[in-house]
């Protein structure tokens, strides 16, 4: 398909506009994080800092007792723990469920619709029952409680996304392996999972990001730094009467770095996973 000159110009203009909308706020966060408080509070605003100030990064990466850095790093550790735990639990349940939905299509459609419907419900609906359950089991203010709570959102999404990827894998390949005498586990390990690697990588990325950015459950089910996640820790930095906006920007950048690194590592698999099933041959 050949684009006209006008179409090409409009397309590039749209791409540049989208790039500016995405990049400029990130660039401003970086500038804020290394600007002095004076540059951020004086009018007119200094868009370019007169002197670079990296003290906020040192403050957030310090493990001094009762410091902002200790709270921030503990929250980062908790977030990694919750993200990994939630992703592992969700995948352990979603992989067999998504395969069954894909291979028994038509028989389990209503159940699949129910699974997807739970993902569409606002998480606020689950707060009260989950709170009572965690309170009765003495799980409040623990990473385990957040793993269970986040799984109520991640698991339906993971099942739905994996099901779409497995749909694109011809069932005849599995049937051929079964005729050759391979067991179900052997078929999974040798046929299904290798072919589903792109969609699995994509699902892992989205699952981790969903947990990484989750705020509602982390705010309600935790009360101190022993279980707080990064989103709550950043919110606490902004809870004072006078907020250090540069510190908030530095915290946001540090919190985003792990997700950016994971996304960069899985970029090729992400593109392949998102296009899986788009073309059937």
From TrEMBL:
<dbReference type="InterPro" id="IPR035906">
    <property type="entry name" value="MetI-like_sf"/>
</dbReference>
<comment type="function">
    <text>Part of the ABC transporter complex MalEFGK involved in maltose/maltodextrin import. Probably responsible for the translocation of the substrate across the membrane.</text>
</comment>
<feature type="transmembrane region" description="Helical">
    <location>
        <begin position="245"/>
        <end position="266"/>
    </location>
</feature>
<feature type="transmembrane region" description="Helical">
    <location>
        <begin position="144"/>
        <end position="166"/>
    </location>
</feature>
<comment type="similarity">
    <text>Belongs to the binding-protein-dependent transport system permease family. MalFG subfamily.</text>
</comment>
<keyword id="KW-0813">Transport</keyword>
<keyword id="KW-0762">Sugar transport</keyword>
<feature type="transmembrane region" description="Helical">
    <location>
        <begin position="12"/>
        <end position="31"/>
    </location>
</feature>
<dbReference type="GO" id="GO:0005886">
    <property type="term" value="C:plasma membrane"/>
</dbReference>
<dbReference type="InterPro" id="IPR000515">
    <property type="entry name" value="MetI-like"/>
</dbReference>
<protein>
    <recommendedName>
        <fullName>Maltose/maltodextrin transport system permease protein MalG</fullName>
    </recommendedName>
</protein>
<feature type="transmembrane region" description="Helical">
    <location>
        <begin position="111"/>
        <end position="132"/>
    </location>
</feature>
<feature type="domain" description="ABC transmembrane type-1">
    <location>
        <begin position="76"/>
        <end position="266"/>
    </location>
</feature>
<dbReference type="InterPro" id="IPR050901">
    <property type="entry name" value="BP-dep_ABC_trans_perm"/>
</dbReference>
<feature type="transmembrane region" description="Helical">
    <location>
        <begin position="82"/>
        <end position="102"/>
    </location>
</feature>
<keyword id="KW-1003">Cell membrane</keyword>
<dbReference type="Pfam" id="PF00528">
    <property type="entry name" value="BPD_transp_1"/>
</dbReference>
<feature type="transmembrane region" description="Helical">
    <location>
        <begin position="187"/>
        <end position="212"/>
    </location>
</feature>
<dbReference type="GO" id="GO:0055085">
    <property type="term" value="P:transmembrane transport"/>
</dbReference>
<keyword id="KW-0472">Membrane</keyword>
<keyword id="KW-0812">Transmembrane</keyword>
<keyword id="KW-1133">Transmembrane helix</keyword>
């Amino acid at each position: 398909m050949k684009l006209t000159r006008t179409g090409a110009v409009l397309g590039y203009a749209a791409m540049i506009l989208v790039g500016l909308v995405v990049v400029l706020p990130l660039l401003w966060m970086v500038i804020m994080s290394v600007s002095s408080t004076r540059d951020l509070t004086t009018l007119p605003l200094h868009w370019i800092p007169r002197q670079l100030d990296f003290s906020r990064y040192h403050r957030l990466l310090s493990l001094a007792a009762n410091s902002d850095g200790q709270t921030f790093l503990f929250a980062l550790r908790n977030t990694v723990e919750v993200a990994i735990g939630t992703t592992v639990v969700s995948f352990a349940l979603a992989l067999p469920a998504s395969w069954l939905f894909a291979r028994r299509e038509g028989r389990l459609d209503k159940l699949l619709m129910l699974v997807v419907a739970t993902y569409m419900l606002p998480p606020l609906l689950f707060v009260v029952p989950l709170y009572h359950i965690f309170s009765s089991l003495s799980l409040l203010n623990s990473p385990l409680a957040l793993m269970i709570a986040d799984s109520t959102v991640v698991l339906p999404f993971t099942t739905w996304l994996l099901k779409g990827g497995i749909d694109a894998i011809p069932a005849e390949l599995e049937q051929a392996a079964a005729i050759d005498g391979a067991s179900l586990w052997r078929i999974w390990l040798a046929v299904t999972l290798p072919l589903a690697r792109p969609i699995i990588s994509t699902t892992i990325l989205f699952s981790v990001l969903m947990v990484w950015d989750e705020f509602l459950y982390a705010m309600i089910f935790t009360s101190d730094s022993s279980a707080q996640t990064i989103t709550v820790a950043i919110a606490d930095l902004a809870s004072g009467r006078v907020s250090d906006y540069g510190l908030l920007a530095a915290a946001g950048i540090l919190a985003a770095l792990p997700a950016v690194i994971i996304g960069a590592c899985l970029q090729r698999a992400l593109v392949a996973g998102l296009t899986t099933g788009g073309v059937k041959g």
